[in-house]
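Here we describe the complex-level prediction in full. Unlike the single-chain runs in Section 2.1, the two entities below were treated as one system.
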Amino acid sequence: MRTSNVMERPNVDSGLEPDLPTEIEETSVDIAAALRDSNIQEVLDELDRELVGLKPVKTRIREIASLLLVERLRKEMSLTTEPPTLHMSFTGRPGTGKTTVALRMAKILHHLGYVRRGHLVVATRDDLVGQYIGHTAPKTKEIVKKAMGGVLFIDEAYYLYRPENERDYGQEAIEMLLQVMENQRDDLVVILAGYKERMDTFFQSNLGFRSRIAHHINFPDYTLEELMAIAELMVGQQMYTFDEDSRQAFAEYLELRIKQPHFANARSVRNAIDRIKLRQANRLIRQGGSITKGELARIDEADIRLSRVFQGGLDREPENSADEG
Amino acid sequence: MKVTQGTFSFLPDLTDEEIRKQVEFCLNNGWPINVEFTDDPHPRNSYWEMWDFPMFDLKDAAAVMLEINACRQAHPNHYIKVNGYNVTKGRETVALSFIVNRPKHEPGFRLVRQEVHGRTINYTVQSYATDKPEGERYADE
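The structure predicted for the assembly as a whole is:
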């Protein structure tokens, strides 16, 4: 039944004749046209435009997209029988864009016709593993069913496997996932995500996963310049502006923040901007009087300098004292 | 005698591909779906057993096909139907219901005449299959 599904999948968007004769070896196909018709270029460009840095990731995604496109063309020419394995693993520290890229990946796979709907279902251990015997299987099955036709993104997948407790129900979820990854390859794509080191140990103790995953992509940490570019992008999106001094202050802020614990790349930048907005609002209210539009948008150096990052770090003071300054 | 209950029941049995497309139609309308089965084909038997849970928030018909096939495997000689439930406020009713599996041999119904007061006769139908207890019907075909 699976093969018949593959054959019947509509290829209307390819613009090619569906039944190309196999015996003619000279049958030609326009790669550029196929690329254009699949609209993946658009998604890839969007990826380039909206995500700062991540050079190795973008290269890999491009490679995978090309591979899948060629694979599809091959299938149209009856050159291949096995559908390619699409399951992936995204490794990297928090805030490096794994979920965002997974969303784009779902779009790319959808445009190429490898998943039918192209939605992303994000799940963690809590969504998959039950609390008592017999609870895990239906829970996992429900999530898997929701993800069918799209991509199942399992964040921090290594929590599924708890070797210290041999009666942990995580093992049951793992077995079900492995089965689905093998038998329902046409129906959904699984992406596992998490810290690099812990994912490596996870794969070592779950060889079934390792062999079923075709693409391992590592997300590098952002450099200071990239984080700055991300900050500019976020600030711009929220209709705020840095001036010369505050830009300098924010760069210094980042430099200090990177060295402090719990740094989560782009997510930390977003949180920092949220707190800066808070301080800016506070300052404007205290200042009173009439303010211009420019004033409302501008982030002042003082809004940044007040952060407790400049006073020695997050651990030094309780949560909310930073704003009081 | 082919039992004709629900949508499409006067058509030849739907193929899996046709079922998938109907399910897709339900999902595109945002209707949750459930699968039910029974071995009592009486037309007034509206309470069929539910297979697994009702399926909410699905995006793709593959998940429903999975359940239909699992139910067929467990109950190859039962009637199985798929219901699409319209949740729209004010509607809140089954919007599409069709049979996706039926026993290989359907013996049909007998007409029962009951003489009551005077010369009045009450008519009713009774399924031959229900002569046997639940679970043993359609078993030896």
